[in-house]
Amino acid sequence: MNAAASPSGAWLEAVGICKSFPGVRALDDVSLCVAPGEVLCVVGENGAGKSTLMKILGGALQPDAGTLRIEGQPIHLTGVPHAQRLGIALIHQELNLADSLDVAANIFLGREPCRAGPLRLIDRSIYAAAGRVLDSLGVSLSPYRRVGGLSIGQQQLVEIARALSMQSRLLIMDEPTSSLTQRETQRLFAVIGDLKSRGVSVVYISHRLAEVEAIADRVTVLRDGRNAGELARGEITHEALVRRMVGRDLKQFFPRTLVAPRGAPALLEVCGAVVSPRQPEPISFGIAAGEVVAMAGLMGAGRTRLAQALFGIRPLLAGEVRVQGRRLRSGSPQAAIAAGLFLVPEDRRQLGLVLAASVQRNISLPSLHLLQRAGLVRANRERALAQQMVERLRIRTPHLKQAAALLSGGNQQKVVLAKWLARQARVLILDEPTRGVDVGAKTEIYGLIDALAQEGVGILMISSELEEILGMADRVLVMHEGRLAGELAREQLSEEAIMRLATGGKAA
Q1: Which are the contacts of 363, defined by CB distance < 8 A and separation ≥ 6?
Q2: Domain region containing 134
């Protein structure tokens, strides 16, 4: 087995798993195992093969070679329903729920108890059954509530309840906390602890290494589609995980080398901005050329709404935005783009990319009018532009015609950055730039942010990761409930200072 020795009495084993796609060897002789009541974390950079392996374990993909065993017996999964019948449930990062239905209907979707008779009406016992499953999780949630009205954390718990209603022995969770608040994350960890005590196994995938350190009994590390090592509970540290994930030590994880001089003229000026009728007070701030200003705050503080208003997706209700002294027309992304103000959105897949389009077309899309002659796009110029940006940002793609949907998360993020850098950005708004990105790709993105700042680009970086803010920011703006709660200079930065302002307290 290409990993450390398995724990005795493993419930599930995967041995020598191989899987290839056209032009890509996704998995090469990968093995792992998980024991009853164990939390096994699987980590690795984007493209390491984690999701492919999980889809094989969940029955969504067939391996090209290798063996799966449950309680020592070889099995051949014919599909997701077969895996579910055997007790394996895969909970995807993108939740798979019907927003218009209530909690009970989602828990038993496709398995609803029906009354006898020709009409096959759903029996109302479904609500009592859903209530029992929710109670077993310690979740105070009405089975009558519509799922579309729940928070992301509550929806995550509905997914877990659905899995447990199928008598699942193994839950596979792919980036389960990527959209959760800190409180919801702690609730999820408590649920995982309860599942462990009942003998339910959990395979947990996360890029958040602090979470891995907190909950893992063991860690299996993948790198480039192969096993890169395994760590027991007492061996799990941030440094050990990073070393195995990227094959080297990251001596300089946050490569911030230049702090913009105090008193430099503002490149971006936000003057008395009001973006919501419920906003308690106008917002004003500036960003100088070469400065990285982070914007911190808890979920719902209004950071993304403000970013969208600065870029023109939402209109300003009052105030103005200036770039290099030029006032931008409110509610006009075209005006922002013309001034060199660009937004890299939090949800890159929905808002930043055309997933079915190629890497080349995604990069060139905002620049097509500059690449055309007589109304026709010049293919050689488009290709040259895309190739230049792929090389500059080290985007890992088999070819320029590769669909953006098939790239890893980190490389998708680089494509979104590339399309704006091709337009000579003056100000970049980066909304959660490393969300769902592995540790190696994070380092590359941090290096790119630093390089852009050194070139004189002004950067507003919205982030929920305090470590990232402390490592990269020249200044930090902290929002609380729609208002700017305070500003911290570099020498004032600490996790405590940021959280004090983010929760409505006063600066020390």
Answers
A1: 385, 386, 389, 390, 415, 418, 419, 422
A2: 94-151
